[in-house]
Amino acid sequence: MSTTDTTQTDSNRNNRFIQLHLLTSYPPANLNRDDMGRPKTARMGGVDRLRVSSQSLKRHWRTSELFQSALENHLGTRTKMLGAEAFDQLVAAGVAEGKAKKWAQAIGGVFGKLKKAKKDNPREDLEIEQLVHVSPRERQAVDALVQTLAKEQREPEKAELALLRQDNQAVDIALFGRMLASSPAFNMEAACQVAHAISVHPVVIEDDYFTAVDDLNDGSEDAGAAHIGETGFAAGLFYSYICINRALLVENLGGDETLARKAIAALTEAAAKIAPSGKQNSFASRAYASFILAEMGDEQPRSLSASFLKPIDQRNSDDFARDAITALKQQRDNFNAAYGACYSGCYELNAVDGGDNNLAGLLAFVSE
User: Fold this and answer.
1) Whether residues 23 and 85 fall in one domain
2) Of 169, 184, 218, which residue sits at a domain end?
3) Quick one: what percent of the chain has pLDDT higher than 70?
4) Does pLDDT of 230 surpass 70?
5) Which residues does 73 contact at the CB level (< 8 Å), separation at least 6?
6) Is residue 187 included in any domain, yes or no?
7) In this predicted structure, what is the pLDDT of residue 123?
8) Buried b (16+ CB within 10 A) or exposed e, 102-119
9) How many whole angstroms separate alpha carbon 260 and alpha carbon 173?
């Protein structure tokens, strides 16, 4: 089977699903910690694997400089502080604190239920109970309303509080969705699904015992360390899976196909290049994907995680990366033989064995 099929045809432009399968090798690291500060794990195929949660992956992609610069002015903000922000702006504009608080609570309440005030934090009733993802246009609408209220010295009218009715141009909301329990009419279904990344092989979490030395301690009284600690770590080759519903993404962006293409390209590049930030200063565990398989089609999507139900074992493998690529392609071919091809076009980027395909070609393919 050809490793690439990038013919730009009208039928390809109508393909609904884009699936990305990535293999990324990380050296000793603690990329994503659990509640005990140790690397997250998952049990699969009867063995323990390293794991990086989808929440961690999405946040690092969304907040990366790469993603931010590619989609400037088209990214939302996750916050509980809209009411508090409005209150501070009103007070700064000369509105009395009592009125400012009442008006700001009306604004914050549009986006979710507000917390109750506490004696030790009287401003807490300006905060929304849950994080809410707001688009740039929604934030602009809030700022404009605050300026109007301050100028006219009056409370907001009911019609003016329709702050969620702005056209959505926030790519991260369109990709990853939004849920507003108090205003379900403004929920948005995610156009992108992201799996937890798992290592393709078994792991044992190791401990790094470390000490810190006091530079001003001359050792005359105490030659010991000023601090002793330990942190968990492990190395792994991870399989990651992303599925993008291109049609839903365009719909979520109000029909803006150009912006949707930019979003898909930026997400793909971020997934290939951006590493989770956990313990980076201690381990410098930055990595690019070693292998990426991109598929485009209208068929029901499927992960290729079954490739690694039987873990790659160091006792039987001389090269984890090549063995993982072989297993991934074999599972793809087996699914194709059993169910028919899941895609009408595919593109492979192989940084292990090299080849003519590169990131520019991959981005062109996914953003057709």
Assistant:
1) no
2) 169
3) 95
4) yes
5) 136
6) no
7) 85
8) ebbebbbbbbbebbeeee
9) 12
Separation of alpha carbons 196 and 44, rounded Å? 12
- CA distances, 10 to each of 2, 78, 368 (Å): 21, 37, 10
User: What is the DSSP code (8-state) at residue 114?
Assistant: B
My answer on whether 262 and 320 are in the same domain is yes
End-to-end alpha carbon distance in the chain: 22
Domain that holds residue 45: 10-72+194-366
- Cβ proximity of 327 and 312 under 8 Å: yes
Greater confidence (245 vs 3) lies with: 245
- Are residues 231 and 347 located together in one domain of the fold? yes
> Do 296 and 152 lie in a common domain?
no
Tell me the whole-structure pTM to 2 decimals. 0.88
Is residue 114 assigned to a domain? yes
- pLDDT-derived band at 14, boundaries 50, 70, 90: low
Residue with tokens 């989770």: 276
Tell me the C-alpha distance between 317 and 201, whole Å.
10
Residue 273 and residue 245 share a domain: yes
Is the same domain home to 134 and 263?
Answer: no
Report the number of distinct structural domains present in the chain: 2
Q: Which residues pair with 110 in a beta bridge?
A: none
Both 265 and 330 in one domain: the answer is yes
Confidence class for position 166, pLDDT limits 50, 70, 90? low
pLDDT digits (tens, 9 = 90+) for 276-324: 988 888 888 999 999 999 999 999 999 999 999 999 987 777 899 999 9
- Provide the 3-class DSSP secondary structure of residue 63: helix
- The per-residue pLDDT for 154 is 94
Catalogue the long-range contacts made by 329-335 (C-beta closer than 8 Å, 24 or more residues apart): 329/293, 331/304, 331/306, 331/307, 332/293, 332/304, 332/307, 333/1, 335/302, 335/304
Report residue 354 as tokens: 């090299």
pLDDT in tens, 52-107: 999 999 999 999 999 999 999 999 999 999 999 999 999 999 999 999 999 999 99
Let me know if residue 5 belongs to a domain. no
* Three-state SS annotation for 19-45: EEEEEEEEEEECCCECCCCCECEEEEC
